[in-house]
C-alpha cells in the first residue's frame, strides 16, 4: 500500500506530465504535430480504417487506397489505438492516445524505479518522480502506443514474475503491452533481451523461473495473435510485399560500425536525446563509489548489448541477403535501438541516485537533470514540434494572416479540399487522384481515393504497375530512380525537379517545367485528377487540363487541380 505522501508525490508527477498537453489544449488543431512517418502514414491509416467503417475488421480491403489495398497490410484490428479513433474525431483521438501513452510511460517508470532500481530514501523519492517525468517527456512517436513508452511497465511486470509478486497484475500488463504496441518495432527485440536475461538467471541461480517463462510465452504468443496480419503476410504466398524488392547494399565492417555509431543518440522514431549527460553521470558515480552495483552493471551491459546486436544483426543480414533469403530484406535489425531511450534513462536516474548520496556533489544533480530534460524536450530539430507549439502559445496573437504556418489544420486543409471535392462534384469512389509536391495523406484524410500512398508494406505487383506511370520521369535522376526501385514505400509521383520535396507552401514560386508521366497508364489505373502544390508548365503537352487553382488563408497549400 502506498502511504499518503507517496500518493501525493505520484499525483504531483501526473500533474506535471499533464502540463505537457497545455499548448495542445490552447492551440487545438492549430498545434504543430510532426508529419514525417507520423501524420503521413501511421495516423492516416487509423483515420482511413475508421472512415471506411472497418477499424476492427480482419479482412475487408482498403478501397480508398491503391485501388483496394488488402487489409493485411494495415495495422491490426485488435490494437487499442483503433478504439480511440473509433470513439473520437481524428485530432482528439490522437491527443487522447498521446495522453494515455505518456501517463503509462510515467507510471511504468515510477513503478520500476520505486520497486526495483532505487533504494528508499528522501532524495531518491524526488529522483523517482523526476526520472519518471523525464521518461514521459521523451519525444517518441506516441502513435506507436507503448512500443517505447511501455517498456518500463513491461520490465516491471517481468521482474514481478521473476520474484513471485503481483502475478495476475503482471500477466495483465503483458497483455496490455501486446495490445498497445508494435511487434516489429520493439516487442521482437525485447523478447531477445528477455530470453538472454532469463538464461543468465537460470545459469546463475540454477533454478527455473516458471512464471517468468509463462510471461515470456504470453508476450510472444499474444503479440503474434494481435499482429495476425503480419503473420498472414509472412505465411501466405498471396501477399508478396514491396519489401521483398528492397536492395540491401553490401557494407564493409567499417560502414556497419558507422551505422551502429549513428544510433548512439537514438533515432527520432524512438525519442532522440544525447546520452553524453548519462555517461557523465555514470562516470561520476564510479568516481564517488569506486564500484558498480549489479543493477548498473545490468544497465551498462544491456546498452552495450544493443549496439553489439545492431552490429551483429546488420552483418548477419548482409550474409543472408547474399544467400538469396528474400525475407531478410524486410527485417530492420537497427530497431534494437528502440530499447535505448528506456535503457539510457534508467541508467541516468540510477547514476544520479549514487551522486545525490554525496553531500559535496549533490548540487551537480539538478544541473545534470536540467540539461538532460532540456535536450529531451528539444528532441530532433527535424521532427520536434513541442517547443514550437510553446512559441505559438506565447505569441498567439502575433500571427500574420498570410503566413503559411504548417500545423495540423493547415496541413490537412479540410476547407480547401472540401471546395475541391464540391468543384469536381462526383462520387469520390468513382475516380482516383495522385498528389504532386504534397503528401497523398492529405487527399486521403479528405476522403479522396488515391493511387499513391505511403505504406510500410503493400503489393509488389502494384508497385510495378505504378512505376509504369512514373518510369520515364524517375529515369531522369538515378538517385530518385534507385529510391523508388530499391525501397518504394513512398509510392509517389516523384518529379525530379522537386527532388523529393513534399512541402511546397502556397507562397512557393517553384514550378515543374517538364513532367514526364504516362497518362495512359494513369487512366488505366482509374486515375483522373492530379493535385499539385506547384504549377506544371507542360501540362497541355501531357494532355492534362488545368481545371482550377485553389487556395485560402488557413491552408498551407495552393492546389493546382489537373484533369487527365
3D architecture notes:
It is a single chain. This protein is mainly alpha-helical and 564 residues long. It contains 25 helices and 8 strands. The mean pLDDT is 89.
Number of helices in the DSSP assignment: 25
> What's the count of strands?
8
Major β-sheet annotation: 4 strands, mixed
Summed over residues and divided by their number, the pLDDT gives a mean of 89
Which residues sit in consecutive blocks of at least 5 with pLDDT less than 50? none
Q: What is the general shape?
A: globular
Which band does the percent of strand residues land in?
5-15%
Strand order of the largest sheet: 1-5-8-7
Q: Report the helical percentage.
A: 55-70%
From the structure above, extract its key features.
two-stranded antiparallel ribbon, 564 residues, mainly alpha, four-stranded mixed β-sheet
Q: Could you give a short description of this structure?
A:
By secondary structure, the chain is mostly helical. Helices cover 56% and strands 6% of the residues.
Amino acid at each position: 500500500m502506498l502511504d499518503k505522501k507517496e500518493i501525493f508525490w505520484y499525483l504531483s508527477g501526473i500533474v506535471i506530465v499533464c502540463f505537457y498537453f497545455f499548448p495542445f489544449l490552447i492551440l487545438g488543431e492549430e498545434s504543430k504535430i510532426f508529419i514525417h512517418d507520423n501524420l503521413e502514414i501511421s495516423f492516416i491509416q487509423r483515420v482511413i480504417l475508421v472512415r471506411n467503417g472497418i477499424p476492427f475488421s480482419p479482412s475487408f480491403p482498403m478501397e480508398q487506397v491503391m485501388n483496394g489495398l488488402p487489409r493485411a497490410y494495415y495495422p491490426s484490428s485488435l490494437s487499442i489505438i483503433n478504439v480511440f479513433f473509433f470513439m473520437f474525431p481524428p485530432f482528439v483521438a490522437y491527443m487522447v492516445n498521446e495522453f494515455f501513452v505518456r501517463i503509462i510511460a510515467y507510471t511504468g517508470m515510477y513503478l520500476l524505479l520505486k520497486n526495483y532500481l532505487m533504494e528508499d530514501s528522501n532524495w531518491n523519492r524526488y529522483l523517482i518522480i523526476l526520472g519518471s517525468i523525464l521518461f514521459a517527456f521523451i519525444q517518441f512517436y506516441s502513435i506507436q502506443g507503448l512500443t517505447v513508452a511501455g517498456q518500463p511497465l513491461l520490465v516491471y511486470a517481468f521482474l514481478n514474475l521473476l520474484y513471485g509478486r503481483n502475478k495476475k497484475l503482471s500477466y495483465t500488463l503483458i497483455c496490455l503491452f501486446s495490445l498497445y504496441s508494435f511487434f516489429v518495432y520493439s516487442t521482437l527485440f525485447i523478447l531477445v533481451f528477455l530470453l538472454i536475461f532469463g538464461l543468465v538467471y537460470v545459469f546463475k541461480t540454477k533454478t527455473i523461473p516458471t512464471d517468468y517463462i509463462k510471461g515470456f510465452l504470453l508476450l510472444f504468443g499474444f503479440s503474434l495473435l494481435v499482429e495476425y496480419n503480419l503473420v498472414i503476410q509472412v505465411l501466405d504466398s498471396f501477399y508478396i510485399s514491396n519489401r521483398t524488392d528492397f536492395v540491401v547494399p553490401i557494407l564493409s565492417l567499417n560502414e556497419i560500425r558507422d551505422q551502429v555509431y549513428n544510433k548512439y543518440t537514438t533515432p527520432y522514431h524512438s525519442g532522440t536525446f544525447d546520452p553524453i549527460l548519462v555517461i557523465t553521470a555514470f562516470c561520476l558515480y564510479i568516481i564517488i563509489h569506486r564500484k558498480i552495483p549489479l543493477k548498473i552493471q545490468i544497465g551498462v551491459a544491456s546498452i552495450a548489448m544493443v549496439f553489439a546486436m545492431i552490429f551483429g544483426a546488420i552483418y548477419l543480414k548482409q550474409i543472408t541477403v547474399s544467400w538469396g533469403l528474400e525475407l531478410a530484406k524486410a527485417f530492420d535489425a537497427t530497431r534494437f535501438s528502440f530499447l535505448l531511450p528506456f535503457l539510457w534513462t534508467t541508467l541516468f536516474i540510477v547514476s544520479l541516485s549514487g551522486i545525490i548520496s554525496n553531500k559535496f556533489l549533490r548540487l551537480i544533480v539538478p544541473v545534470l537533470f536540467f540539461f538532460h530534460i532540456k535536450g529531451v524536450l528539444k528532441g530532433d530539430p527535424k521532427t520536434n514540434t513541442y517547443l514550437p507549439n510553446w512559441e505559438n502559445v506565447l505569441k498567439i496573437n502575433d500571427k500574420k494572416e498570410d503566413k503559411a504556418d504548417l500545423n495540423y489544420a493547415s496541413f490537412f486543409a479540410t476547407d480547401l479540399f472540401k471546395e475541391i471535392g464540391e468543384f469536381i462534384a462526383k462520387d469520390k469512389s468513382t475516380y482516383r487522384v495522385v498528389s504532386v509536391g504534397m503528401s497523398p495523406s492529405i487527399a486521403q484524410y479528405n476522403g479522396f481515393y488515391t493511387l499513391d500512398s505511403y505504406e510500410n508494406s503493400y503489393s509488389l505487383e502494384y508497385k510495378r504497375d505504378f512505376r509504369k506511370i512514373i518510369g520515364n520521369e524517375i529515369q531522369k535522376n538515378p538517385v530518385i530512380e534507385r529510391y523508388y526501385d530499391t525501397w518504394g514505400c513512398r509510392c509517389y509521383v516523384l518529379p525530379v525537379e522537386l527532388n523529393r520535396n513534399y512541402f511546397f507552401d502556397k507562397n512557393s514560386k517553384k514550378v515543374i517545367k517538364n513532367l514526364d508521366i504516362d497518362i495512359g497508364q494513369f487512366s488505366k489505373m482509374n486515375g483522373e485528377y492530379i493535385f499539385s502544390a506547384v504549377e506544371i508548365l507542360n501540362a497541355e503537352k501531357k494532355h492534362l487540363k488545368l481545371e482550377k487553382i485553389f487556395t485560402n488563408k488557413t491552408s498551407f497549400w495552393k492546389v493546382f487541380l489537373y484533369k487527365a
